[in-house]
Amino acid sequence: MSWFYACDLFGVAVFAITGALMAGRKSMDLFGVLVIAIVTSLGGGTLRDVILSHYPVSWIRNDLYILVATLAALGTVLWVRFTRPINERGLLIADAFGLAVFTVVGTQVALEQQVPISAAVIMGVMTGVAGGVMRDIICNEIPLIFHKEIYATACIAGALIYIVLQQFKWSDDLASVMAMLAVLSIRLAAIRWHLELPRFHLLDREPKDSDQ
Amino acid sequence: MSWFYACDLFGVAVFAITGALMAGRKSMDLFGVLVIAIVTSLGGGTLRDVILSHYPVSWIRNDLYILVATLAALGTVLWVRFTRPINERGLLIADAFGLAVFTVVGTQVALEQQVPISAAVIMGVMTGVAGGVMRDIICNEIPLIFHKEIYATACIAGALIYIVLQQFKWSDDLASVMAMLAVLSIRLAAIRWHLELPRFHLLDREPKDSDQ
Amino acid sequence: MSWFYACDLFGVAVFAITGALMAGRKSMDLFGVLVIAIVTSLGGGTLRDVILSHYPVSWIRNDLYILVATLAALGTVLWVRFTRPINERGLLIADAFGLAVFTVVGTQVALEQQVPISAAVIMGVMTGVAGGVMRDIICNEIPLIFHKEIYATACIAGALIYIVLQQFKWSDDLASVMAMLAVLSIRLAAIRWHLELPRFHLLDREPKDSDQ
């Protein structure tokens, strides 16, 4: 088992935990917790694979992914039941780490399919953030990543760094580590100093036909 | 026409009716009613086929599916217009029956594609419930199946029973009937005695970074 | 570069602008604006290509699409920043034009894949409206096209006209123009005289089991 595969499974577990916690905030039943956890952790990669026609999708090729997501979700429910508080700070850092891994995985898979660079960046970002967007849509929230501290921008930077280092023929391991470090450090800096992208405010008006 | 194909078409009609009723509750126009009916009845199977790369998807291979969903939606609008009350009890039982058929269809299709057992169960559940989840998302509701009486759990049981009986070399017809009976009886028992899965409650706090 | 390809790019730009404006109404950050713009302009075609197994999807085959959507989104933000008012009337007409192009593109792609007529019409409508539906779902709104002046109905008419003219062996260019004119004129007439499809109203009751 390579170090990178271990990171990937760790990312799945972390994203499943954030999904389970959101489901708990909506008072879902155990099945709902499981679905939201699986969608959050595996939805981004599934969307990427379907759009790239990269079959079979990850969790069908390897059933360890479903197992890890399921165990992480059940573990979260048990942990919270026995009233151990959630370490928000630790979870934030773990989430940034998962984001870094997923971004690199997505960019790698896209480059293997010989897509243009713009599409490879989009696939990296999509793998990192789409699971969380699906979680928020199912839970009837406007996705947080469009409002919050720099999140997806960290993915864009990581995907670009990975692509550039690949062009310079760096080894895959080294390019992955550098790209992950970029995502991690941008994201942790954004959390630490509450960095945000500029917002685009438009006065709320009556929805008109142009809204279609 | 096999008995199972007839059941499948019946399931499409029932799910289209539940979609049309929800669209009516949101005062959608006729086009909206049609779209919600089609998405509810065919969305789960389409998602399954796309994730499994099982092309062409059902309603492109066979245009009877679209026809049945369309007629069921229009029939629902006419029925309600002429103020005949909706038989809630009958609709509930029909819905449980449709759920049973869709679950077995989804599990069958997945097994034909040689996927692992965990993925086959997910495909069975997805075929049964994803159309209803899409309906609720488009109508801006938190999907009911994550809050309600045992619903998806019945699908999980049905998919597992089908897979086990297949392993024991039961005939496809017999395995299908047993699995459908399992889904139906669990679901009807849940309705009758208001059985629910335990909920996972988390106190609502300010959304923090970890929500991403 | 054919005239039709130019129309297609124009449609992408217009849809990206409507997406960016909606994101601004939700006070999203720059990344959110970009995502909503791309999803609105390319989401319908991507969904169509995935369901038809028509790979690679448009924006992976040709990275000009992403570039146009991105520039249109950024241009919208700059335009609004410098407080130039938005020409609602012009945008409405441009949007109707984009809808006409997308409908014809979607119907063409579907017919090339030899799908039944019902599926070709659905693909035409889907290409025209699904991007806007995704935009509304992500922004947590009930999709406007299910409530508003005749919109999708114009797509249905356009797709049918294209299919019929194809059967009569009209040239592709001529069939495209006639179908686009149909969409445009129906849509502009609907805006001008506020035409709506009849609504389907169902009294709001307690959600019951049948809502599943």
Give a verbal description of the structure.
The structure is a homotrimer of 212-residue chains. Chain A has one domain. Chain A has helices spanning 3-25, 30-52, 58-61, 64-81, 88-112, 117-138, 152-167, 172-193. With 212 residues, chain A is mostly helical. Chain A is globular, with a radius of gyration of 18 Å. In chain A, α6 runs antiparallel to α7 (152-167) and α7 (152-167) runs antiparallel to α8. Chain A is built from eight helices and no strands. Chains in contact: A-B, A-C, B-C. Chain A binds chain B through residues 18, 20-33, 35-36, 38, 46, 50, 53, 55-57, 59-60, 63, 66-67, 77, 80, 86, 88, 91-92, 95, 132, 137-140, 144-145, 148-149, 151, 191, and chain B through 50-53, 115-119, 122, 133, 137, 140-143, 145-148, 151-153, 156, 196-202, 204-205, 207-212. Chains A, B, C: It is found in: Cell membrane. Chains A, B, C: It is a multi-pass membrane protein. Chains A, B, C: Its main location: membrane. Chains A, B, C: It comes from Pseudomonas neustonica. Chains A, B, C: Belongs to the UPF0126 family.
What are its keywords?
transmembrane (chains A, B, C), 212 residues, disordered C terminus, 72% helix, mainly alpha, homotrimer, cell membrane (chains A, B, C), 8 helices, globular
Q: Most extensive interface, residues per chain?
A: A-B, 47 and 39 residues
Summarize the biggest pleated sheet of chain A. none
Number of domains of chain A: 1
Q: Which percent band covers the strand fraction of chain A?
A: under 5%
Helix content of chain A: over 70%
Pfam families (chains A, B, C): Gly_transporter
Subcellular location (chains A, B, C): Cell membrane
Main location (chains A, B, C): membrane
Protein name (chains A, B, C): Trimeric intracellular cation channel family protein
